[in-house]
Amino acid sequence: MGSLVKDTAHVPEAQQEEAQYLTFLLGKEMFAIDILVIKEIIEFGELTSVPMMPEFIRGVINLRGAVVPVVDLSARFGRALSSVTRRTCIVIIEVESEGEKQDIGVMVDSVSEVLEIPATDIEPAPSFGVKIRAEFISGMGKVRDRFVIILNAAKVLSVNELAMLSEVGTGDGNMTTPADPESARDAG
User: Fold this and answer.
1) What is d(CA 116, CA 10) in angstroms, rounded to the nearest whole number?
2) Of 81, 76, 46, residue with least CA distance to 153
């Protein structure tokens, strides 16, 4: 009788540690996110803007009855807002915060492909030369003689950090109104 357990003794260790990543473009740069946190990819459609949000939160969408915020990844990295083209997509990512799961949409210029990248082909995040915060990067994957920036989705889309940023201001120095009306009256 055959065994249901796969025999991996003859498979090189590097192949055992291979992970799949969705690759996508922001401008001319290639990025990747672990496929395990991605729920789906949808065509870019109409967004409902939400007042008093940081600029990188482009709005919300209705995804089968659920309100899902959409983050412009380019703007999240401190760059200009993304231009919408016919290839623009929203990648729905599930992040966990304090034991609760939250879906967040990520606006990307275009989706490329799903790649398997062995752990041996992933270098640590560089401490210099990258124009995004180091904690956003989980590594640099070597794919076909070039590097792909592998993002740490939990850090890039930290629900707590996004909430703090929306409370503090829009990123341009303007402060939002306090949530407590008493505080607003005392401040004025």
Assistant:
1) 19
2) 76
Domain 17-174, CATH among 3.90.25.10, 2.40.50.180, 3.40.50.1100, 3.40.50.970: 2.40.50.180
Whole-angstrom Cα distance, residue 92 to residue 132? 21
Domain boundaries, the chain: 17-174
Q: Percentage helix, strand, coil, to 5, in the chain?
A: 20, 40, 40
Local confidence pLDDT in tens for the 188 residues of the chain: 443 333 334 444 444 478 999 999 999 999 999 999 999 999 999 999 999 888 899 999 999 999 999 999 999 888 899 999 999 999 999 988 778 888 999 999 999 999 999 999 999 877 665 567 778 888 999 988 889 999 998 888 886 666 665 554 444 433 333 333 333 334 44
User: Is the dihedral angle over the CA atoms 65, 67, 69, 70 positive or is it negative?
Assistant: positive
Helix (H) or strand (E) holding 115: strand 110-117
* Other Cβ atoms within 10 Å of 145 Cβ, number: 5
Question: Which residue in 99, 91, 82, 117 sits closest to 160, CA to CA?
Answer: 99
Q: Is 151 exposed, middle or buried (0-12, 13-18, 19+ CB in 10 A)?
A: buried
User: pTM of the entire structure?
Assistant: 0.74
